[in-house]
Amino acid sequence: MTDTTTHEGEPHSGALGSRLNWLRAAVLGANDGIVSTAGIVVGVAGATGSRTTLLTAGLAGLLAGSMSMAAGEYVSVSTQRDSEKAALDLERRELREQPQAELDELTGMLADRGLSEDVAREAAEQLTRRDALRAHARVELGIDPDALTNPWHAAGASFLAFTAGALLPLLAMVLPPASLRLTVTVVSVLAALALTGWGSARLGATALRPALLRNTGGGALAMGVTYAAGTLLGAAGV
Q1: In Å, what is the CA distance from 194 to each residue of 93, 169, 178, 218?
Q2: Percentage of residues of the chain with pLDDT beyond 70
Q3: Fewer CB near the last or first residue (10 Å), C or N of the chain?
């Protein structure tokens, strides 16, 4: 007897696309929050040791970055959703005006996937009788009509993720004594970036090493550049 059970850990449903969309928004938001805020506070720390100045700069970066991330994600996902809805409206009209041509088209697409002509025709007829729009949306367009991307969800995820990520370097810079600020911030940021890299690799089922290197390497470079710039500007009295 053929085993039809789903293999553990192997994606078989349309929920994968939704999960990856959330993962993309959350990881991107958290990484941006960590790296951009760390760059700001480390750069300012290179120029001044004032806790008030560091806190002001960090909070300004946090608020500006979180709003920018949310707005950008909302616009991006709204555009994607509008495109999906337009494609579905066009498909709905074609099914109403040219049902036979659409049935032939669905048959051809199923045959292109390896089914024989007879089996493809039978499958297309059954799918069309059950729900023609859903069949064409999934096979032809790669869209699940019941799971269109939600711009508000993506924007909210980006805002919260950026804020959570940005709080770490901000607190790491302003809470410790002046002599430990830079060390605590750098260590905390690299550890956080390693964690988000591990999380993205684990949830996305991708290789761990490249994700860790990308995250920690990019964060270290950003902090190094901004600290050097802040030190130079501070030494010049700018």
Answers
A1: 49, 14, 25, 11
A2: 87
A3: N
Q: Is residue 233 packed enough to be buried (19+ CB in 10 Å), middle (13-18) or exposed (0-12)? A: middle
Query: Are 110 and 139 a contacting pair, CB within 8 Å?
Result: yes
For tokens 């494609």, the residue is: 87
For the chain, the structural domain boundaries read: 16-83+150-236
Give the number of other Cβ atoms within 10 Å of residue 18's Cβ.
16
Residues 6+ away with beta carbon under 8 Å from 170: 37, 41, 55, 58, 59, 62
Give the pLDDT confidence of 38-84 residue by residue, as tens digits. Answer: 999 999 998 888 899 999 999 999 999 999 988 988 998 899 889 88
Query: Rounded to an integer, what distance in angstroms lies between the CA atom of residue 226 and that of residue 158?
Result: 24
Asked whether the beta carbons of 231 and 43 are under 8 A apart, the reply is no
> How many C-beta atoms lie closer than 10 Å to residue 28's C-beta?
20
Give the count of beta carbons closer than 10 Å to the beta carbon of residue 34.
28
| Both tokens assigned to 133 | 């729009």
